[in-house]
């Protein structure tokens, strides 16, 4: 019985640490999209996660290590939302469904829950290599997801068109968030959607 209890305590401690780690990453993934990499401080993240500042280094070797995990988590969440939109639509309408969700006013209004590339793209070149690597991996996944919706999937043209589509949709969201006129923001998204959907068949 004593041996079982001794084994259980380390397991419980490890599980608690893992849960805390996940909470920190989840908070940081939202924070970087809302306030940017430079606006994301360790003390604020730990406070929002309900942990002390001093506990940070039990979870990460550096702030950049936390940002890399946060970037990866933000990208994973964005990819999951895109894949969900694709999965719920008939195959011929999958890309259009994904684009409508991506170019929606809900996405424009809430960057903290959306695509990290649109929220952080201009900041990425100045980040540490591990942060950029995480972002690059998720961008490539997005391009691949878009390419797989093409009837020419597997051909070089599908990949090239997917690159154009992703660049266009991300750029549209950046512009739609940049302007201070709701009508113009809506027009940017609607024009982009009208251009991209017919081009994809």
Topology:
Blueprint: H1 2-35, H2 42-48, H3 63-88, H4 94-102, H5 105-109, H6 116-120, H7 129-147, H8 156-178, H9 182-199
Describe the protein.
This protein is mainly α. The protein has a single domain (2-199), classed as Tetracycline Repressor, domain 2 (Orthogonal Bundle), CATH 1.10.357.10. The protein has nine helices and no strands. Helix 3 packs across helix 4 (94-102), helix 7 (129-147) packs across helix 8 (156-178) and helix 8 packs antiparallel against helix 9 (182-199).
CATH class: Mainly Alpha
Helical percent range?
over 70%
Cα-atom radius of gyration? 20 Å
Mean pLDDT: 90
Distance between the termini: 66 Å
Give me the count of strands.
0
The poorly predicted ranges are none
CATH architecture assignment? Orthogonal Bundle
How would you classify the helix and strand content by structural class?
Answer: mainly alpha
Shape: globular
What can be said about the biggest beta sheet?
none
CATH superfamily: Tetracycline Repressor, domain 2
Number of helices: 9
Which descriptors would you attach to this protein?
mainly alpha, single chain, Tetracycline Repressor, domain 2, 201 residues
Short description:
By secondary structure, the protein is mainly α. 73% of the residues lie in helices and 0% in strands.
């Amino acid at each position: 019985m004593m041996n079982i209890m001794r084994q259980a305590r380390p397991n419980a401690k490890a599980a608690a640490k893992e849960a805390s780690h996940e909470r920190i990453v989840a908070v940081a993934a939202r924070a970087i999209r809302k306030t940017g990499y430079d606006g994301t401080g360790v003390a604020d993240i730990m406070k929002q996660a309900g942990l002390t500042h001093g506990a940070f280094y039990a979870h990460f070797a550096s702030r950049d290590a936390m940002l890399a995990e946060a970037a990866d988590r933000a990208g994973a969440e964005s990819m999951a939302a895109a894949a969900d939109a694709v999965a719920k639509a008939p195959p011929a309408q999958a890309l259009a469904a994904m684009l409508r969700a991506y170019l929606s006013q809900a996405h424009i209004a809430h960057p903290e829950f959306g695509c990290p590339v649109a929220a952080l793209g201009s900041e990425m070149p100045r980040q540490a290599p591990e942060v950029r690597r995480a972002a690059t991996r998720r961008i490539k996944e997005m391009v691949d997801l878009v390419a797989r919706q093409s009837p020419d999937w597997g051909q070089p043209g599908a990949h090239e068109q997917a690159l154009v589509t992703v660049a266009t949709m991300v750029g549209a969201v950046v512009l739609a968030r940049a302007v201070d006129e709701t009508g113009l923001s809506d027009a940017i998204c609607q024009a982009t959607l009208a251009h991209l959907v017919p081009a994809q068949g």
